[in-house]
Amino acid sequence: FKHFGVLVVIVNNNYHIIHMADLNEEKKDDESTPPGPSQEEIARKEREEAIVNRVRRTIDCFANEEGGVRSIPEEEVGHLLRACGCFVPEIVLISQIMPTIKEDEFTDAGTVKPETAEKRIIAMIKERKWEADTEHELLLAFRRLDQLAHNGEEFGYIESAKMSTYLTTQGFAPFRSEENSSFLSYANDDTGSKIFYHDYIGKLIPYLEDEDYLFPSKS
């Protein structure tokens, strides 16, 4: 029972006296030290910071500056998205993505603002909607190109010259010269004349599955 600020507890006929002020002080101490963030919350924050840092570094590679104003050429947006890990079909880029990045009256014709692009790309990465194709999907695509290059037969490789023609002349967004050269330097065999696509996929998939691709370390 309580009496004049004192709590008296009787246990087995023994009296225990506790001053209420002491209890109140302990309660204040508990309230003044809220629990810190969990390991999961810390990890999530670090991953979000890593996404922002990666996107900003990538944008810096594509942005131009003139008169103190930075901008990104419209034709580079698709390449920028892929460099950030968002593999968007060209028709989707034109009809859905670009309208959300462009700010007509505030942006010079043919350019986009880096700040606007950054926000949109970060949101796309977090959605995880436009990630790279799976190993199975890549294999099916290469097998189809193999058949196309060899009159319906599959040899397990594609001649580099033929692959270069496909990449630079076909599709909604053909590779630029530097993109094609970069791809061939990574995908070619030791002779530089063929792409053994099983080997190429074997090198590529672990890289894409590595979280550092989208969530790089801070080192």
Explain this structure.
The protein is of the alpha+beta class and 219 residues long. The protein starts with a strand and ends in a 10-residue tail after the last helix. It has helices at residues 20-32, 39-62, 77-83, 90-101, 114-127, 135-149, 160-169, 177-187, 197-209; strands spanning 2-3, 6-11, 14-19, 64-66, 69-73, 111-112, 158-159, 194-195. 54% of the residues lie in helices and 13% in strands. Mean pLDDT is 80; it is low at 1-11 and 215-219. Helix 2 (39-62) crosses helix 5 and helix 6 runs antiparallel to helix 9 (197-209).
Give a short summary of the structure:
This protein has 219 residues and is α+β, with helices and mostly antiparallel strands. The protein is built from nine helices and eight strands. The strands form three sheets. The chain has a three-stranded antiparallel beta sheet.
